[in-house]
Batch of 3 targets.
Target 1
Amino acid sequence: MHQPFRLRWFWPHEGYESDSASLDLYFDQSFNHSVFEEISELYIRSNRMIHDTGIACTFNLSGTLFDQSMWNPELIRSFKKLRGVVEFASSPYYNSLSPLFEEKGEFLRQVRMHRDALSDLIGVRSTTFINTELIHNSIVARLVSELGFSTVVSEGVFGLGDHCSAFDDGVLPVLFRHPVLSCDLEFRSHDTLWCEYPLTASKFAEWIAQMEGNVLTLYLDYGSVSHEFLEDLLHELGLRGIELLTVSEAVSRFDSVFYDGALHLSRLNLKHCLSNHMQHLYLHELGRLSQIMGAGGDEIFGYLQQADILFEMGEEKPYPFDYAVNTFSILSDYARRRV
């Protein structure tokens, strides 16, 4: 679950007319608030359904969602009621691509921030780590292991076919997301032109039952599946003797299979956020600023790292070049105050 702080259209003269950097200077807080009002009510209703049905799952809540929850404290209370029902995982606080920075200090800072926020706000200590965009490699595995995490969820490996298990990357147990079934449920199920439309709970449960192995991992946006479908799927899985588990339950119940393939994994190979020069340059500048500021990064710098900003520079978006010019103007104004 993630809600970003979306940028506003920024004119450089506004920066020079302002004494200091602020959220209102760089981010469209009115729009962010209006979107959050709507989505928070959806999350609260969904949390109530999860609580009432006892559906076992693992939540990955972004730090920006925590920050926006000040606009509706009932959302945090609804998550707290799910303690003991669902598992809460940790991730980089700002949903950032900081694990790709040359220096890993910012990445570690954000992971610690997120783990502390879960403890302070929800009252849980996470042992599962889910990186932004499911990024995983040998360096990340070592770092999160040193931080005390015992399990990772990462992007699936197409070469594994339909063999679904818990794996061991040589450092930690890893659950690989099944990319096809996850996207079927999150995206293709809403496409009326899809050859499998309409996707019923019975059909989807049967697909899962035909898979080889003992652990199949789905990872998708919380609001992409209706309550009715989830309740029906729980029933259909039960009819086939299939049980829903949290990440920690899965790795503790089943032996891990050693994975000896390439360990450079990420959702969609990051093509949606690192496919052109603008995106690569922005990520490079973020890494450079992080190295200069060290541990002195503030929340504005965190929000400027959101992977969502890189998505919007993708050439499949309506106005990627205009968006990039605006984004670099904001980053430049911020940087001149800090460097």
Target 2
Amino acid sequence: MGTTESGTAELETTLRTLSGKNVRFLLRAALALLAFYAASALPGAAASERGTILVYGDSLSAGYGLAQKDAWPSLLAERLKKNGYDYGVVNASISGETSSGGASRIASTLAAGHPAVTVLELGANDGLRGLPVKQMRDNLERIVRALQAAGSKVVIVGMRLPPNYGPGYVRDFEASFGDLARKYKAAYVPFLLEGIADKPELFQADQLHPVAAAQGRVLDNVWTALRPLLVK
């Protein structure tokens, strides 16, 4: 068992003595810290001249159902190196994460290190659960403000929902990402799954998470907004 795995096991043992919300909050904070300590798991994540790119998302960025080397944040690390960008990549994404969870752990994540750029990919689970759009927007705004206060450039990644959620909810949900990007002058990816969402063969059996073969396209969608923020 490696250092990170050992640390996770010890944390889980300790947290079993606690209960309810305290457990969830502390575990999220601990996982955020461990994500930074485990950064060497991603290619090029060692100390870099230009700093760190933080990927802060849910299962779509955590590599759900994939080998970590195939997930788009790992492909990002490889592309950076190939193109001469001296940044490390830290993936602090958690499968199942909502905007509320992300907001609750952003302070502890930033306490572990200040990223040069953050790719904020949260909100999909809020939408799938039909949570209030204002609640999601407020949470994302809290995260963006914390990131910018810490000196991080921000890329806000948008998501879309199927029409069965109702036209009003879908419209307000999808507009929230662009509205926040404009308000905070952040870079913006209109839709993480552009060019993928309409191709069932590019998704795992759950039809929610892209397969390994689609991760390059996911990265391309992010790269378009991310690259102008980078310095060689």
Target 3
Amino acid sequence: MTSLIPANKSESASHAQEAVGEKIANRAEGRQIELDEALLLAAKNGAKEQVLGLMALGANPQAANRHGNTALMVAARNQNWEAIDALLPTGDGKRTNRWNETALIIGVGNGSPDSFGRMVDLLLPISDPSHADRQKDTALFIAARNGALEAIEKLLAASADPKPKNADGTTLLMLRDIPFFGADENGQKREREWLRLVLKGSDVNAEDAVGHTALMRAVWWNAHGDQFLKMLLPHCDPTHLNSQGKTALDVAAEGKEWWAVEELAKHMPSAAFCKALPHLDKEQTPVAYARAYAQTEANELSASVEKTQKARPPKTSTSRAGEAMPSNESPADGDDKPRSRANRI
């Protein structure tokens, strides 16, 4: 049977239907984007009812912003407890953002450390505590760096390894950044509790990728002054030899960290201390020995510098007129300006 509708009219109707369908799809897509963006905003500072209402309208809890953060991650970063409670049933605790962070890692790295224990309670059941971010840190290492005592204890209990290390062999005792709890009595109490926890979760003689123990790193970095070294020494053996046959004293002497040499001397037998460094006076105590050794080094360095300066003739430069001029001066027209240290780096 021959169609009574001209072919060109049939094609025109078909194109019109496609255009309408595309327009509807675009509007639906635009509406979905608006809902997802609204959910991310509600996760930051909205109430539980707002979050639940947006999801009821079709907002996708797995949608992410440009950094790869989902609504649950946003809620964890901002410690929005109501939003976390609403998002948990549909949240993916193993999802990661562009920095390879999970909601748990984000949750123990932002906000008040005193609340991190609560964050662990909520997110740990849906998370992998062994997951590490781009910096090779797990949630446990981040909590330890932030001094979150309750979170440290709970994450240690959940750790498959009772003495965990990160990917480069770092233990909790090897953290370069340690928390400051304050100088008052309560701060000192919290500091002792932090040390107890990280000691519980660390092997004091474990070595990092270059063979340094926690005690050696405390000496080498000098990141915490003598504070951390004093905290560690009662729990470590300063005469312990690492895989390279070195002690913490060797590391301190090689780095000329005489403050550390003096502190280590208080915890080492005189015989062991004198054996480790060239002899000065066997009758001296280890502390006096360390001070004398440091002074000898300083005197030798000063004499060497003075000798070098005397042997070096003063530099001169020639101006355009052919006259000699001191090297620390520049021509009047400024064509030959002396370079700063920053320009040499």
